[in-house]
Amino acid sequence: MCRRSAAQALALRSRIVLECAGGRSIAEVSPRLGGDPETVRTWRRRFLDRGLNGMCDRPGLTGA
């Protein structure tokens, strides 16, 4: 079951990035995907800073 959760988390992160790349704001993306604005902000920033490598969790690290 952990694998499925990880895959679902990555899918959500991908949707966040795609929505933001489509020109939507954090305030627009958050309710569309049913997430917290801070979550959208975190993954958008990580993608901008690190590209695809930023989309994966790294053990022992939290936040953006």
Written account of the structure:
This protein has 64 residues and is mainly α. 66% of the residues lie in helices and 0% in strands. Helix 1 packs antiparallel against helix 2 and helix 2 crosses helix 3. The protein starts with a helix and ends in a 14-residue tail after the last helix. The C terminus is likely disordered.
Quote the average pLDDT. Answer: 86
| Termini Cα gap | 26 Å
Helical region count?
3
| Rg of Cα set | 11 Å
Topology as H/E string? Answer: HHH
Give the SSE layout.
Blueprint lengths: L1 H20 L4 H8 L3 H14 L14
Helix pairs in contact: 1-2, 1-3, 2-3
Properties at a glance:
single chain, mainly alpha, 0% strand
Task: Give me a quick take on this structure.
This protein is an all-alpha fold.
